[in-house]
Design a protein that fits this description.
The chain has 213 residues and is an all-alpha fold. It is built from eleven helices and no strands.
């Protein structure tokens, strides 16, 4: 004889009530029940603190702490930085004050065809939207109404290499920081290319003319 439908519903209702009571009492009763059935508990597992890393980094990966300072300009950074002298952090106020730490940064990259080619590539990629392809300050962004700044003025020619490097790194005024896009040695390639665009300063040209006479 089949069990009446009402009895089955009452049994299911009681089961539902028991389960709700167990789960409503907290996680431990349900966890204990599942542990007794399956032989394991969610409480018995390794727990990691924030920023814990249980696995070693993948081969060839670049850790966040490496920054963007490879050991030399010909090396792609594939691990922790291994350079002797890393430029100290530069603050925007240092640019405004033209601090010695900025003005005395030395360009470690020789002006070679390879350096100029790399600098041109990066300049066209990151700088021409504002400064234009020749550095005159007539890029598409400035044509749309943003402030323009020519790199060919006597003032810009008078900036030390370290000053231009620092502006690329942290920005100034309307110019945003490009430090996250252009790496340490690449900034110096950009400096070399900017110097090529600028050509000799008027003072240097006058001095050269005087020597030629």
């Amino acid at each position: 004889m089949a069990e009446p439908r009402g009895a089955r519903l009452r049994v299911r209702s009681w089961v539902a009530v028991v389960l709700i009571a167990i789960t409503g009492a907290g996680c431990h009763p349900m966890d204990d029940l599942l542990s007794s059935i399956f032989g394991r508990s969610m409480r018995d597992q390794p727990s990691l603190d924030p920023y814990d890393q249980p696995l070693m980094p993948a081969e060839g990966s670049v850790p966040f702490a490496a920054g963007n300072f490879p050991s030399n300009p010909e090396t792609v950074q594939l691990g922790q930085a291994e350079v002797g002298e890393v430029p100290a952090p530069i603050q925007p106020i240092q640019l405004l004050q033209q601090a010695p730490e900025v003005m005395e940064l030395e360009n470690p990259i020789d002006v070679t065809d390879q350096s100029l080619a790399r600098g041109e590539e990066l300049f066209n990629r990151a700088c021409t939207p504002c400064h234009g392809p020749t550095g005159e300050g007539d890029g598409l962004v400035t044509a749309a109404g943003m402030p323009s700044f020519s790199l060919l003025t006597d003032q810009a020619r008078g900036y030390p290499d370290g000053y231009i490097y620092s502006i690329v790194r942290i920005g100034r005024g309307a110019m945003p920081s490009l430090g996250h896009q252009i790496t340490h040695y690449d900034r110096w390639h950009v400096v070399n290319y900017v110097r090529q665009l600028q050509g000799p300063s008027p003072a240097a040209s006058t001095a050269q003319d005087a020597e030629d006479r």
